[in-house]
């Protein structure tokens, strides 16, 4: 039964594409069908999944994207009219940060709700195949946001796009093409920073984009409770979902993203289901916050993310801002099969040096062993040994802490925070030395270089030869780890931003529909 259905579906797809090419009357459909890459049939495995899930080959689709999870979901309408998940594709590469795109050149992949029509499908893409997300939409334009040519494409290379492998985009493209052949005018693209769960909302509650995320979560919730594509409108520079005309209205409301919202209602069956879900989510969120769920660390300059399945197969690979492998190491994932060909020029996520350099820095506390010393110091400056008749020794005696030879039984808090004995330490630090280390930073004009010369510890027993003089402190003051090397370092790439894909000329997409003119 399944094999006969697959055969009929394949024959119908090929026959329809051929008839459209011969007719040549619909330029959008011709652009979809006249390119060999763009006309690849839907794989038999996907056709079998459609049969199993009660879907037709040419029924409507809907796409959802998640940055943190680095996943692209294709949903397809079943014969009962609701959408069901057909397949989840790991995203090979996305760039930027969690949050919406704001301006041209910010490397951000867009977030929000977008509509993809046949004219946005690009069979002549420089990145194998692609479709334009439609950014900026009316909401973006109302806020003055800018950007262009934001795509979902192949080649696993991103400068503000969502990049898949060539094999993945061929499948996704074929599903979109078939939905258009079946009569769908446009399919909806929903792009999110992460799955809008209470756990993720709690983890990111300190993010400045939270107000925007709560707004698009409304549309996420509409889809979750109805399994229907939410109707999207814009007014007063905000999203409105599933708006309908009031019972006494004679015509549908007219929306303008920059204007005041017209009178509208949300059907009660949808509104009540959404309210119930949101109440449950808010209760779960409050519990998570009350028990101290840790907040996600803000981006420190890492450029985008990559699904763990791809990161596991790239030398020095990293998931970046996407989630790592929970319960599964990258080494274990490296044994599995990759969902497509990973090009040799792919750049895994890595820190953006400019962003890191301008980010606020915290003073590091790093344990470092001093040459020819019996202790290890965990302070930003060298510990200083007190001298019997020095300033700090006298100050210690005035404060009732004894002489330099007397050990303090209760060290000051500052001393315990800045001095950590090593396993090889034989002589505990004295009270005066602890006090000196704690006070030195508050003494203006104090020349620490003179004290450093006096700091070489005396051996507990006579040594065979005198200790070597202390060498200069060569510790690094940087707070970030050493950068990982790029997978593909080539000549002429020195001026390219870290994590950036090769720059394509701005007119590289202008001829994508040249075959249909």
Summarize the structure.
Helices cover 29% and strands 11% of the residues. With 517 residues, it is α+β, with helices and mostly antiparallel strands.
What does the secondary structure layout of this molecule look like, with pairings?
Blueprint: H1 2-23, H2 27-33, H3 44-52, E1 61-66, E2 71-77, E3 83-90, E4 93-94, E5 112-116, E6 121-122, E7 130-132, H4 138-142, E8 151-153, E9 162-163, H5 166-181, E10 187-192, H6 198-203, H7 210-226, E11 232-235, E12 238-241, H8 268-290, H9 308-311, H10 330-333, H11 353-358, E13 368-369, E14 376-377, H12 391-398, H13 413-418, E15 419-420, H14 431-439, H15 448-453
Helix pairs in contact: 1-3, 7-8, 12-14
Tally the beta strands: 15
Rg, alpha carbons: 31 Å
* Class computed from helices, strands and strand pairing: alpha+beta
- Shape, please? globular
Figure out the total of helices: 15
Notes on the protein architecture:
With 517 residues, the protein is α+β, with helices and mostly antiparallel strands. It has helices at 2-23, 27-33, 44-52, 138-142, 166-181, 198-203, 210-226, 268-290, 308-311, 330-333, 353-358, 391-398, 413-418, 431-439, 448-453, and strands at residues 61-66, 71-77, 83-90, 93-94, 112-116, 121-122, 130-132, 151-153, 162-163, 187-192, 232-235, 238-241, 368-369, 376-377, 419-420. The strands form four sheets. Strands 3-2-1-10-5 form a five-stranded mixed sheet, sandwiched between helices. Strand 2 (71-77) and strand 3 form a beta hairpin. Helix 1 crosses helix 3. 36% of the residues are buried. The active site is at residues 153, 161. Residues 403-432, 458-467 have a biased composition (Low complexity). Residues 446-457 have a biased composition (Basic and acidic residues).
């Amino acid at each position: 039964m399944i094999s006969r259905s697959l055969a009929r579906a394949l024959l119908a797809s090929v026959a329809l594409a051929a008839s459209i090419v011969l007719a040549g009357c619909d330029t959008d459909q011709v652009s979809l069908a006249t390119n060999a890459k763009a006309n690849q049939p839907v794989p038999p495995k996907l056709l079998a999944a459609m049969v199993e899930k009660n879907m037709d080959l040419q029924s409507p689709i809907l796409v959802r994207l998640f940055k943190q999870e680095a996943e692209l979901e294709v949903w397809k309408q079943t014969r009962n009219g609701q959408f069901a998940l057909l397949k989840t594709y790991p995203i090979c590469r996305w760039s930027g940060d969690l949050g919406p795109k704001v301006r041209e050149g910010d490397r951000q992949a867009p977030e929000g709700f977008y509509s993809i029509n046949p004219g946005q499908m690009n069979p002549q893409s420089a990145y194998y195949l692609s479709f334009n997300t439609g950014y900026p939409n009316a909401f973006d334009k109302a806020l003055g946001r800018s950007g262009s040519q934001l795509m979902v494409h192949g080649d696993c290379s991103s400068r503000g796009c969502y990049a898949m492998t060539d094999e993945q985009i061929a499948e996704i493209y074929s599903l979109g093409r078939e939905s258009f052949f079946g009569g769908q005018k446009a399919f909806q693209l929903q792009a999110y920073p992460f799955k809008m769960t209470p756990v993720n909302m709690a983890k990111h509650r300190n993010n400045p984009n939270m107000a925007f995320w709560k707004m698009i979560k409304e549309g996420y919730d509409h889809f979750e409770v109805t399994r229907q594509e939410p109707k999207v409108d814009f007014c007063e520079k905000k999203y409105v979902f599933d708006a309908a005309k009031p019972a006494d209205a004679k015509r549908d409301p007219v929306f303008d993203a920059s204007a005041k919202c017209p009178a509208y209602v949300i059907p009660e069956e949808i509104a009540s289901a959404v309210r119930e879900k949101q109440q449950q989510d808010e209760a779960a969120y409050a519990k998570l916050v009350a028990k101290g769920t840790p907040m996600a660390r803000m981006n420190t300059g890492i450029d985008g993310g990559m699904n763990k399945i791809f990161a596991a197969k790239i030398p020095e690979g990293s998931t970046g801002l996407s989630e790592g492998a929970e319960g599964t190491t990258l080494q274990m994932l490296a044994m599995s099969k990759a969902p497509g060909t990973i090009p040799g020029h792919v750049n895994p996520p890595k820190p953006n040096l400019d962003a890191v350099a301008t980010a606020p820095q915290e003073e590091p506390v790093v344990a470092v062993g001093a040459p020819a010393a019996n202790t290890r110091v965990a302070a930003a400056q060298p510990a200083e040994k007190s001298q019997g008749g020095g300033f700090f020794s006298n100050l210690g005696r005035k404060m009732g802490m004894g002489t330099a030879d007397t050990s303090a039984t209760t060290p000051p808090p500052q001393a315990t925070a800045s001095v950590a004995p090593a396993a090889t330490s034989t002589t505990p630090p004295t009270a005066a030395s602890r006090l000196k280390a704690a006070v030195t930073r508050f003494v203006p004009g104090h020349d620490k270089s003179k004290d450093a010369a006096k700091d070489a510890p005396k051996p507990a027993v006579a040594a065979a030869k005198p200790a070597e003089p202390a060498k200069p402190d060569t510790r690094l003051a940087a707070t970030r780890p050493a950068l990982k090397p790029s997978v593909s370092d080539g000549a002429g790439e020195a001026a390219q931003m870290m994590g950036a894909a090769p720059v394509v000329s701005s007119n590289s997409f202008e001829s994508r529909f040249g075959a249909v003119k």
